[in-house]
Batch of 4 targets.
Target 1
Amino acid sequence: MSAGSVAVVVTEEMHVPSWDLYELSIPCTVFGKPQPDLAEPWYDLRLCGTGEPGQDPGTPASGAIGLSLHTRHGLADLAGADTVIVPSVPDACVDEGRPLPPELITALRHAYDSGARMVSLCTGAFALAEAGILDGRRATAHWLHTAQLASRYPKVRVDDSVLYVDDGDVLTSAGLTAGLDLCLHLVRRDLGAHVANQLARRMVVPAHRPGGQAQFIDQPIPATDDRGLAPVLDWARERLDEPLTVEDLAQQAAMSPRTLYRRLQAATGVTPLQWLLNQRIRRAQSLLESTDLPVSRIGELSGLGTANNLRHHFLKQIGVSPSDYRRAFPLA
């Protein structure tokens, strides 16, 4: 397992809109801050602007909303990176059809042809699509922009219902927090579940949301997390190998099953049984990565039962068999 180098494309160095800073800050936070106690070396991060390296971006016009960025690296520095991330593209390129810089498209294509793992967050998918990297692939973006993406690039199989798509060497995500989910997913792929979980804990975010989870749910998202559920969820995580039911969780939380069901779904976006299944899959992933226990024993410890039942759920949620997943994380 290795971290490698990550090149993040800054497509608009002058007068960057404040709302685009969120997607840009995600890879900077995940990959740019060394975590020597989790993995050494950590990722080598470089910000690569579409302008000339070191060029003074100038002073924003009076009344302009946004910031100016000064990057040390240019598009030529995408070459040789293990992972290339495009967090977003200018709004005018999405809404008004303004062409993306041809030098950016050429640099992205060259990086891909050289073997780089290509990643987009939110509207960054438009850059990968323009470079032809998404042709014939399933991909996503923020649901507000997926119709435009599908219309403009008919060769792309656009899925507007998921948080992110992992297509091996090309990954795309929806906007905002889905970009964080994808970046943590990359850490999980590169460095294992333990490192990703500890990093998420430090960032005070969920350790893992499956990419296939819906971008949005019919019920409004609560303004704050239901912190009253934390004790019962921690209790359940410690007993995943036991046959837990909604009634068991409700009794531990001192509430009716109906109330527990409603509050947990409102807080997490999934039903209690789906939450338990997600936790058990996560436990199985961790055991597959960190032990040489037989698959049958991992099924028992994760609460998924038999080896066949573990394989069924693993294939459905992760997309590979437990054995194939384990081969990606060889023990030292």
Target 2
Amino acid sequence: MSPLPSELAYVPFVSVEHMMGLVHHIGIEKVLTDLAAEIEADFRRWPLFDKTPRVASHSAVGVIELMPTSDGQTYGFKYVNGHPKNTAEGLQTVTAFGLLADVDTGYPKLLSEMTLLTALRTAATSAMAAKHLAPKSARTMAMIGNGAQSEFQCLAFKAVCGIDTVRLYDIDPAATEKCARNLAQSGLNVVKCRSGQEAIEGVQIITTCTADKQYATILTDNMVGAGVHINAIGGDCPGKTELHRDILMRSSIFVEYPPQTRIEGEIQQLDSEHPVTELWQVITGQAQGRSDDRQITLFDSVGFAIEDFSALRYVARAIKGTPFFTRLDMIADPDDPRDLFGMFQRAEPEAAVA
């Protein structure tokens, strides 16, 4: 008989099925609100974290990335890909998984799917940033790009910022129909639009979230009037942008981590010395966010590891006392830590021993 694993060998694992069950159990808008609060709390202690641009492996068709960070007590990383061509093949553009570990021992504490969780944390981060940067009276948002992220964005802005109307546009009308159908029971007033120009009419917040891995102009300078907040989340790797450069020149630009955003974000179009403000400084009161009614604020969001760390810590707490995880036998834990081979040998099948 093989020796049974000790308690130290087991690591909680949250599958896609578990994540869906957990979010339905809590309620998606509550999860988005909770995640926004968790992420904001970690932005308030931003200087404590290890920070590095994600480690990216680019190919002609996409990118695979590792996103690590630590607050000195807990370490976390996310594996994530971005392959725009996948949609045409019936596959997800983005897939991900993540891990938390104890810094003191190095032992993993949580393994989780992060395809759904990344969609949730991206939306929560967008809404959290808008809470600090958008006009306080904002009630209408344009959602340009109606793919896999769009519904999460709309619901997060409803839950966190009080948005009550979303105006949808995508170059693929089927994507807009899908998004409108999924939001039909959300309590939002959903307006389907035939162009980007139509979508941004009368809005206070513009979210752009398109997937093509190329320099693109989703918003031209003449489309953007004074006083709006732009939440640009589609540009997230070198050579991929959504906004005309002239919009950037008219905007107050806020970012997560400049060394990463200057490589991957909208500001890759600008000189490396162009001034930007780190969002954590606005949240902690060290820098000014929106200063007047005519200011254009731009959150040039590319996604940063600390946001994933926050999301994983939230999940680690949320699953306690629930059935929404499995215990995986992941860690070899021999009685004598110097006798790993002995543990292996004792697991030899009885027939082979005979």
Target 3
Amino acid sequence: MFSLELDEIKNWMSENGEKPFRAAQVFEWLYIKRVTSFEDMTNLSKPLRDNLTESFEMTTLKTLIQQQSSDGTIKFLFELHDGYSIETVLMRHEYGNSVCVTTQVGCRIGCTFCASTLGGLKRNLEAGEIVAQVLKVQQALDETEERVSSVVIMGIGEPFDNYESMMSFLRTINNEKGLNIGARHITVSTSGIIPKIYKFADEKTQINFAISLHAANTELRSRLMPINRAYKLPDLMDAVKYYIDKTGRRVSFEYGLFGGVNDSVEHAEELADLVKDVKCHINLIPVNYVPERDYVRTPKEKIFEFEKALKKRGVNVTIRREQGHDIDAACGQLRAKERKEETR
């Protein structure tokens, strides 16, 4: 049921001889009252509830593991209806509660530093399975009368590889009759699937947009991110400029720092050259260690040197605050550890 957008439920109501306003009532039950059964939708007639029960299923996620960090970060490992598992993370900030959602079971992109891609791609998630992640976290927050205030699509998988489901998810959580999370409180990240960047630009949303960059030259980026062999860095930058021209919004570049690989002052200067004249922000990420990968974290003093070199060149840059360092923090790491049959 969570895969259906409000207009789709309205159409279903009309086709089944019901008034379209019943769709808004269903949305309220799902996303504001957060019921888990059609039977609980007490302002709907019994025949309508029965018809809904026969026609749709409630997407359910089973919580396999719930890890809590000393900083309040909570990582969930959820099991899907077919036995596959996904990760979702709740991060607590001064400005509110943010949820990082997953869009695929596994990932085909093959970034050489990432745990998410271990075992490759199993399948795409349905829109409702992405929505259900936010709802599960919101239900946990309901116990303390808190709410999800922002969402980032940076969990397992490449969101633009599951574009239609991702967009349906975005429209549902943004809907004022749904979870009503403002567009500017939602961030989508991609590794650089260029055709979908152009398509996303043409959507003209107010949703924040981020690119996983991690290197400022083609050779190094191809080594870190094989997708760069298909979608070259110069073409990626052209797509980014198109997005900025089309939307008037800035882009965030995610730059993970890997010790001795991409973290020198020279790399910083190369990055500054790449993004000059681009309306952007650089988010430096001290990487989490992943046992199956060979990369190590850049020492703190070198991170500050890298940041200083960018600021000296006039680049807008911040260092991402670490969260969940005392749990399986790296994306895909909990799934890889607990569900080895999925990540072989």
Target 4
Amino acid sequence: MILEQRINAFAKLGIFLSQFTSDGFHKKENINHNDLFFDGFKHQIKLAEETNGWFTKENIIFSIENWSKSLENNNINNWVLKYNFNDIKAKKVAIIMAGNIPLVGFHDFLSVLISGHNVLVKQSSNDKHLLPFLAKYLEYIEPEFKGKIEFTEGQLEHFDAVIATGSDNTARYFEYYFKNKPSIIRKNRNSIAILNGDESEEQLKALSEDIFRYYGLGCRNVSKLFVPKNYNFEAFFKGVFHWNPIINGAKYANNYDYNKAVYLMSEFDMLENGFLMIKEDLSFSSPIATVFYEFYDNKSTLKTYLENNKNKIQCIVSKGFDRNEIDFGQTQQPQLWDYADNVDTIAFLLKI
């Protein structure tokens, strides 16, 4: 199977996904195998929502819409343009996926197959319904994918390389267990925002998307703010207030109540608005319904601090602070070439 076939297959998958939007599910004409797969995928979305209380329909569809845009033919071609796939000898690459947000492991899945390798997937039990169905659709679109995609719930066996995503604790296990295999091992990371006090209401409103999308469970979610001394949080709270319906979700509300009680009993200083707490804390990783913050004196010192802690940071949201910064509201809409942990997955796959 040549590269063009693989690109076309994923582009057709993107067209299939374009039927499932926040405006509703609208079956289109002239989409390959639609009679066989359209209703089935609606059912898988429903199952994913029922299986995992964090996977609301809104968040599932948000993920699907982003993947539909990313899998546009020209976009995939622009992504792979700088790589040379000519000398690939197909290997079996195992992927151990996280389950914190819907389809969180899809980029690794896409990268392995677009590179010409075979994939062995071990999914999280929290996100097990969507990807196998989409893999089956790919096999119908491009029959040469048959035999190249395998899912397992058991122990990983007979593979040549591995991409594993987990916590700092599981990463230690992965590093030991896979020490004799080429690997990408991903650990805990969090995203931050750097404010200067001059942000517009529109920017702060956009920032709330980076904080609350997927309930803050993703590594690309902003979990910490860096603010100048004497920063007034009134504008921040005003900017994020339109996300207040999030407290109506039982799982989020339970976490909010629990963490608030812990902070109050521990007599921690914190500010809150009924659905979000902000607390001064040195950690990058904050609990659900909480954002940590830290004051900075000057940009130069902050840049040095962040450089020294870059292995803990996934994204930096700011305006004019960092050359790799992400604009407000864009952390959960990465491009295909925005690699997790800044590790080029395709380059890794071309070397194994």
